[in-house]
Amino acid sequence: MSQHETAASLLRRLRREQGRSLRAASAELGLAASYLSRIERGQRTPASDTAERLAGFYGIEPDLLSLAEGIVPQDIVKILQEHPHEISNLRRKYRNRQDS
């Protein structure tokens, strides 16, 4: 996942990488093609159960969709709140990687 990829563009990219058409993917997922299209264009946010189905279908962690939208899972927020020194550790460890 690139730094600036949205959940919509991530889903579209994954579908295309797997060689699926929008109609084929929507049929396999049991979704209307128009609904999946709106999700992939960022015009609709999928409900949590749909997001989990999409993540499973494309073989990714559901949290990646949230992270693509800048939403950090609550369990991770709690961990960082309980261990704030880890924020600095993460920045040190990964800062140079972001510049690549």
Description of the structure:
With 100 residues, the protein is an all-alpha fold. 68% of the residues lie in helices and 0% in strands. The chain has helices spanning 7-17, 22-29, 33-40, 48-58, 62-68, 74-82, 85-98.
Keywords, please?
68% helix; mainly alpha; single chain; 7 helices; 2 domains; 434 Repressor (Amino-terminal Domain); 100 residues
Topology:
Layout: H1 7-17, H2 22-29, H3 33-40, H4 48-58, H5 62-68, H6 74-82, H7 85-98
Helix pairs in contact: 1-5, 2-3
* SS summary, helix count: 7
Architecture (CATH level 2) name of the largest domain: Orthogonal Bundle
Average pLDDT, rounded to a whole number, is 91
End-to-end separation: 14 Å
Share of residues in strands: under 5%
CATH class of the largest domain, please? Mainly Alpha
Structural class comes to: mainly alpha
Brief overview:
Helix content is 68%, strand content 0%. It has seven helices and no strands.
